[in-house]
UniProtKB/TrEMBL annotation:
Residues 264-277 form the SRP54-type proteins GTP-binding domain. GO terms for cellular component: signal recognition particle. GTP binds at residues 103-110, 185-189, 243-246. The gene is ffh. GO terms for biological process: SRP-dependent cotranslational protein targeting to membrane. Part of the signal recognition particle protein translocation system, which is composed of SRP and FtsY. Belongs to the GTP-binding SRP family. SRP54 subfamily. Keywords: Cytoplasm, GTP-binding, Hydrolase, Nucleotide-binding, Ribonucleoprotein, RNA-binding, Signal recognition particle. Involved in targeting and insertion of nascent membrane proteins into the cytoplasmic membrane. Binds to the hydrophobic signal sequence of the ribosome-nascent chain (RNC) as it emerges from the ribosomes. The SRP-RNC complex is then targeted to the cytoplasmic membrane where it interacts with the SRP receptor FtsY. This is Signal recognition particle protein. It is an enzyme of class 3 (hydrolase).
Amino acid sequence: NLTQKLDKAFKNLKGQGSITEINVASTVKEIRRALIDADVNYKVAKEVTDKIKNEAIGQDVLISVSPGQLLVKITSDELTALMGEKAVPLSTDGSPAIILISGLQGSGKTTFSGKLAQFIKKQGKDVLLTACDIYRPAAIDQLKVLGEQVGVDVYAEPENKNALEIANNALDYAKKNGKKVVIVDTAGRLAVDEQMMNEIEGLKKGLNPTETLFVVDSMTGQDAVNTAKTFNERLDFDGVVLTKLDGDTRGGAALSIRTVVDKPIKFISYGEKMDALDVFHPDRMSQRILGMGDVISLVERAQQTFDEDEAKRINKKIRKNQFSFDDFLSQLQQIKKMGNIKDLIGMLPGAGKLMKDIDIDDDAFKPIEAIILSMTKDERENPEIINGSRRRRIANGSGTSIQDVNKLLKQFNDMRKLMKTMNKFSGSRRGLPNMN
Ligand code: GDP
Ligand code: MG
């Protein structure tokens, strides 16, 4: 799956202190492939990744995260920005407000109309649903059933074959009955065709709706983008509704549609239940597209809590092979500041998954800290001077055993050796000794 692919892609970047042109190139290529797999349009995927590449190069990597993890975060921020950064609310101002629903047959218009009616009703506004699918009698019944479910009136004229007339009559009805919002559900076809386009265009011109929404099935991938483009050229709609996000689809269509038609996505619909509707949030969708929400929140937390100057200072010492127990202690304390250690480890791709079930709690670092704190300044800087009698003293002082002290010293030594070979800290938790 995508996460595994990205995991693999980011492996190239582990063990690097900052993002360079060489190590980023292959990763960016993998991200591009991953985006395309998530149904993002090829051109869009290329634009995004080119931009990410330029932004990423030269960025210093905080010691707490690996360059790969940082790149995921950069990618996610970029996708969020491309999808508009913030949620764009639906306007329901008007007397009454008119919301015109457009889209192909089967895209989920009628289902969405019911959901939207409930959504607006919950905001305390009186809503009227209007059945303007004049071709299928069953469509009227379907809307009536949904209206009943959500407790909203449905206006319909089964004999009338003029959609605009029905809609106008519905408006009169709404005004007389104190309805504040009128949702107009319309007919669709299986593919874009002239008659449907003329009809929906006529409805838009005739009704002058507060908002025209375009409903699209997110599972239709590349077609979704083309349909959106065609509808937008004719209707100049105000917002997009992505449906059927309850399936396997990663939502790449959201990114493609947004970049191709430059209209905000306003809602996502993810099931047949009437409350399976959410306002569209670009940041959440970007995490869904990347499939690495855990990594992203890890990086965010790291960015919030890690002292960047301290990280740089330690990085420098590592490069000079001067990493000391004091530096190690400082890192432990930073990691602890980030919160629950078990959570953090669970968030790490790869190793994190393996270690998730190992019993490690927030107290796991306590004996390590105690041992280091029992060392003298000199000992922390030059662990090689810690002989047998010093070990005994440290064990006594820290309330641990000589075996614990020996173990930590050995692990610390191994870690330093590893650093020496790489001469760059991996940034992953690889170097951390544990007390198990
Ligand atoms: P319309 O032709 O555009 O009005 O589409 P409908 O609202 O009738 O929906 C077509 C089919 O898709 C129906 O079987 C719906 O139950 C189903 N459907 C609509 N929205 C969703 C959704 O968000 N998730 C899933 N899984 N099915 C949906
Ligand atoms: Mg319908």
